[in-house]
Amino acid sequence: MDQQLELLLEIQDLRMQRRGLTDGTLTDLEAEVFDIKIEDAIRSLDEKVEELAQRLTRGIRERYRRIADKAPRVVAPVINGICYGCFVAVSTARASEADRNLRVESCEYCGCFLYHVG
Amino acid sequence: MQLREFFVPSAIKLDLAAETKDEALKELVSCMGLDGKSEGILYKMLKRRENLGSTGIGRGIAIPHCRSLVVTRLRVAFGRKLSGLDFKAIDEKPVRYVFLIVAPPLEVSNQYLPVLGRIAQFGKEADVPDLLAEISSPEQFIELLDAKDL
Ligand SMILES: [Zn+2]
User: Fold this and answer.
1) CA distance B149 to chain A (A)
2) I need a labelling partner for B24 at 20 to 30 A (CA). Which of B78, B81, B96, B106 fits?
């Protein structure tokens, strides 16, 4: 897997974790069952995301920032040829390439970085 | 929804080889049938969650959990280590029972939160640690979930 894509995946997963703490879905459970200090956790996640973003190459980092400023999802999974960022089929030629995930690709419709799953 | 629907025998390990928390996470991640790269990413995410605060909720039970793009559906695993693992749990006691839960970022049926909640509820029942110590097969583990109507 492309190392930059791997960084983007980690960033995306951490952003999802942060979202679960801020949108109320996981907040109570994390605070009550797991005794997490929510504000500290959010700060820590933000720091980690930024640390990872600094390791992106300049061009990818700029693209990342443009997407991240607008939407919670920066990397969309591609499952069975469908981009789950916009639910549009990415072209078969691209989806079936043997080198899936070996370079950073973006969806031509929604702009998300693409990660082929499964 | 019943918890038993999510557990498969191949992801119920009643005798973990792991001697440490990290090894236990790796061993349970390896039950998920992912490729090596995805396993590595998932392990890293679980570690990052642990860094925010231990998922050891006390009484020998830990529930490591995260969402990750590397899985396409909710998956769970159970691991038991009767000699105990240092998990930096809330009550500082060794962890003997580990429930691992991973979910994709998007789920059609939104099962992550209810599954996590139910496992936490299960873990808080007074007799559960002793019952988990006694089971001797994955089937008995499933029967225990049934008996608790979870
Ligand atoms: Zn798209």
Assistant:
1) 21
2) B106
